[in-house]
Design brief:
Blueprint lengths: L4 E4 L2 E4 L10 H4 L3 E9 L2 E3 L1 H14 L8 H15 L4 E8 L16 E8 L6 H6 L1 E9 L16 H12 L4 E5 L4 E2 L1 E2 L2 E7 L2 E4 L8 H12 L4 E3 L2 E2 H5 L3 E6 L3 E8 L2 E2 L7 H13 L6 E3 L6
């Protein structure tokens, strides 16, 4: 079970045996919502915030997990307990399921809840975290919020995937997409911040309101750093002193190059490093962590 454990149709199974029906609209139509919470040193980090967002996402997409938040927390903890993982990436999912054959009415589908715990996932490797990421601003536009609400976590990732493929082909590490007005919004699985003269800016509209993003905003304010939530033009990002990504898959990840421009002196900046250190310090704060009872795992 150390490779991971999944909860599928009421049973706990090794991650390699986890599957959903091929006719589930979650697979056929990306008709699902999900959330990811991490476990670090045997404790969930900000589980309450992730659970709150997950339930809001379910409501926005008219999906019913069929379990209460407390029951979902028990399932997530059991996946981790059975795996024995002390650092883990834990995902909860609700799919549309399948309506009766011949029906295209999503109201007739029986929604399905799934969950799994696997070893902690970093979205940047150790070398990238040390030197800072090279990010491209893509010409691919993010799906507008009027079409798919980005505040509800979803699998509508084709725009992100195509943008990422283009960035990787050009030698970058990752990509950030923009909106129709030339403002950067978000990338595949992360929010973006820039720093200019000690002040932080992060996009306000057209983004998933990430829990790591929220954490960094709270950290910055606790440290007395100004934070602005507003439109972030691509050129402003390119000319920033510092930039970084926020994601559950790594917390605070330095960016040292945007397109073909080095930021600052080309190394992770002092504000980024201060936020990064505090982010991991908060993992040891009982206000934000919930220990897992591993029992006889």
């Amino acid at each position: 079970m150390s490779d991971g454990v999944a909860f599928v149709r009421g049973a706990y199974v090794p991650i390699a045996e986890a599957a959903i029906p091929i006719t589930d609209w979650g697979f056929l139509r990306s008709d699902a919502t999900y959330d990811v919470v991490t476990v670090w040193d045997g404790a969930f980090f900000r589980l309450d915030a992730h659970m709150e967002r997950f339930m809001v996402s379910c409501e926005r997409f008219r999906l019913d997990p069929g379990l209460t938040p407390a029951q979902i927390e028990d399932v997530l903890a059991e996946c981790v307990r059975r795996s024995g993982l002390r650092s883990s990436y834990v995902e909860m999912i609700v799919t549309r399921g399948q309506p009766p054959w011949g029906s295209r009415d999503p109201r007739q589908a029986v929604n399905r809840f799934y969950a799994f715990a696997v070893p902690f996932v970093w979205i940047a490797n150790e070398a990238q975290r040390e030197r800072g990421l090279h990010v491209k601003v893509s010409a691919v536009q993010r799906i507008p919020a009027s079409s798919v609400d980005p505040r509800a976590k979803n699998y509508h990732w084709n725009d992100l995937t195509m943008g990422l493929l283009g960035a990787l082909d050009e030698g970058a590490d990752s990509v950030v997409l923009s909106d129709a007005h030339g403002n950067v919004v978000e990338g595949p699985g992360f929010n973006i911040f820039c720093v200019k003269d000690g002040a932080l800016v992060t996009p306000k509209e057209g983004v998933l309101e990430g829990v790591s993003r929220r954490t960094v905003i709270e950290i910055a304010r606790s440290l007395g750093l100004p934070v602005a939530l507003r439109a972030l033009p691509a050129d402003e990002l390119r000319s920033a002193d510092e930039a970084f990504l926020t994601s559950s898959g790594g917390g605070v990840l330095p960016v040292t190059r945007v397109d073909d421009r080095a930021l600052g002196d080309g190394r992770p900046g002092p504000v980024t490093q201060r936020l990064l250190k505090t982010y991991w310090d908060w993992h040891r704060d009982p206000v934000y962590s919930k220990p897992i009872d591993y029992g006889q795992a």
